[in-house]
């Protein structure tokens, strides 16, 4: 059985990211949050666009103000948004406001607090250094410079950069489409009355939300009964309609665990059937050709916690690579001090869910109350981290460090 790291590497190798030549769309900047840039964005402008003042004060010629106090004649007032009208001559100053364009002839700004005004004259009280408070044209970046590389996720500061660079639209990767199905005769929708032996299909809803959160487009295909023909046609439809497919349930060794067999019948190559982790040991990863690309199928275990942990650990990073992101596919890991003892069986790498908090003394991990059964979905809702005990380790004492996967 592969370790989690081996499985992660194998899965990454199977992923061909969306292509900038064919998998893109143009979206308005207002709809670009969270999308992945498909082509680099470069600037058509210098930034700042022209020399401008960083302060409210007076634009002067540095050579005029080396000996202070000295009094200059004010020849113009330049508010932001207005082009200066005159070239500054010897002995002259221009009243200038923050962000306003420097007049020709001026090279230095003296802030208002270091001057004294009398009518149309200003006395400079303190000698400034050359270019004082002047933001030089092109000093932040120059026309032609790359502002944002391809593969970057567009966060709010990037939106500001794109707006400033006059990009009202951007070319981004399309959202990958991920079909989701739940297998099991025992499953019912949340609004249905429960008969003895039935449970609600929570995985469909959890996985749909997770896929949407990852920036992909979820396609919820509902519950499929444990009948091979029904499952085969549902999986075939899902493969047809989506880039990738995620199912939950039916991947163990039970009498109704048909997923792997059906994938083989559909011509898929099975790469993985189990990983040495707890929860989430059964995990089917298969690939199929579709046109000139490869589709992936993830068969997650049915237990609700196992399904989510498997998704976080193996599917989400792969989806991140598929989406065109250039880096940062996997989750972030931190070292945290556990506030309570942690226990594991030791046979498989074990993931214990709980709350990860950041204090001034560093990260703290508190395991969920009520135990770590892979069927106990309830205490997963407040989880923000998964503490990882390596294979062979059976406990961590309170106050000791532990590796935690952030969620
Ligand atoms: N003999 C063995 N039995 C099991 C093994 C094993 O190695 N040998 N592995 C166990 C482990 S670990 C897990 S995890 C489960 C995974 O089994 P399946 O993926 O085949 O899942 P099911 O049997 O269909 O369901 C397991 C469990 O989860 C509930 N479930 C299923 N789907 C959903 C859903 N959509 N929403 C909420 N809950 C769901 C289901 O009712 C079962 O209780 O196998 C062990 N068995
Ligand atoms: O791996 Mo199963 O996921 O332990 O419950």
TrEMBL record:
Keyword Disulfide bond: no
GO cellular component, one term: cytosol
Pfam families: MoCF_biosynth, MoeA_C, MoeA_N
Gene3D superfamilies: MoaB/Mog-like domain, MoeA, C-terminal, domain IV, Molybdopterin biosynthesis moea protein, domain 2, Molybdopterin biosynthesis moea protein, domain 3
GO term, biological process aspect, one: Mo-molybdopterin cofactor biosynthetic process
Keyword Protein biosynthesis appears in the UniProt entry: no
Pathway: Cofactor biosynthesis; molybdopterin biosynthesis
Cofactor(s) the protein needs: Mg(2+)
Highest taxon, organism lineage: Bacteria
Catalytic activity: adenylyl-molybdopterin + molybdate = Mo-molybdopterin + AMP + H(+)
UniProt-recorded Gene Ontology molecular function terms: metal ion binding; molybdopterin molybdotransferase activity
Residue ranges of domain MoaB/Mog in the record: 179-321
EC assignment: 2.10.1.1
Keywords, ordered alphabetically: Magnesium, Metal-binding, Molybdenum, Molybdenum cofactor biosynthesis, Transferase
Enzyme class, UniProt record, top EC level: transferase
Record family assignment: Belongs to the MoeA family.
Biological role: Catalyzes the insertion of molybdate into adenylated molybdopterin with the concomitant release of AMP.
NCBIfam families registered for this protein in UniProt: Glp_gephyrin, molyb_syn
Protein name: Molybdopterin molybdenumtransferase
Gene source species: Vasconcelosia minhoensis LEGE 07310
Lineage: Bacteria, Bacillati, Cyanobacteriota, Cyanophyceae, Nodosilineales
């Amino acid at each position: 059985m592969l370790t989690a790291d081996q499985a992660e590497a194998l899965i990454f190798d199977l992923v061909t990211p969306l292509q900038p030549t064919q998998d893109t769309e143009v979206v308005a900047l207002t709809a670009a949050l969270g999308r992945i840039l498909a082509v680099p964005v470069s600037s058509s402008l210098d930034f700042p666009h022209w020399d401008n003042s960083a302060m409210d004060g007076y634009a002067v010629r540095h050579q005029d103000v080396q000996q202070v106090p000295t009094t200059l004649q004010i020849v113009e007032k330049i508010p932001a948004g207005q082009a200066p009208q005159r070239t500054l001559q010897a002995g002259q100053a221009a009243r200038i406001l923050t962000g306003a364009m420097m007049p020709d002839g001026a090279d230095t700004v003296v802030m208002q607090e270091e001057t004294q005004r009398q009518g149309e004259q200003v006395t400079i009280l303190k000698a400034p250094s050359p270019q004082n408070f002047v933001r030089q044209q092109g000093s932040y970046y120059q026309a032609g410079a790359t502002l944002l590389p391809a593969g970057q996720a567009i966060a709010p500061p990037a939106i500001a950069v794109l707006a400033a660079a006059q990009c009202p639209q951007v070319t981004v990767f399309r959202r990958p489409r991920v079909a989701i199905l739940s297998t099991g005769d025992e499953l019912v929708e949340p609004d249905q009355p429960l008969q003895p032996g039935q449970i609600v299909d929570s995985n469909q809803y959890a996985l749909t939300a997770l896929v949407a959160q990852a920036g992909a487009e979820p396609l919820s295909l509902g519950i499929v009964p444990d009948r091979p023909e029904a499952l085969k046609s549902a999986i075939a439809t899902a493969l047809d309609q989506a880039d990738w497919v995620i199912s939950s349930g039916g991947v163990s060794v039970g009498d109704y665990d048909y997923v792997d067999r059906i994938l083989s019948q559909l011509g898929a190559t099975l790469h993985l059937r189990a990983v040495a982790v707890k929860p989430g040991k059964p995990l089917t990863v298969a690939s199929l050709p579709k046109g000139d690309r490869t589709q992936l199928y993830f068969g997650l275990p049915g237990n609700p916690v196992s399904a989510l942990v498997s998704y976080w650990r193996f599917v989400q990073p792969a989806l991140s690579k598929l989406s065109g992101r250039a880096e940062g596919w996997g989750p972030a890991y931190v070292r945290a001090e556990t506030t309570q003892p942690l226990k594991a069986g030791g046979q498989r790498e074990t993931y214990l869910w709980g709350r990860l908090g950041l204090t001034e003394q560093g990260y703290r991990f508190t395991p969920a109350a009520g135990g770590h059964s892979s069927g106990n979905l309830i205490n997963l809702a407040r989880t923000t981290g998964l503490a990882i005990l390596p294979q062979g380790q059976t406990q961590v004492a309170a106050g000791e460090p532990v590796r935690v996967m952030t969620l």
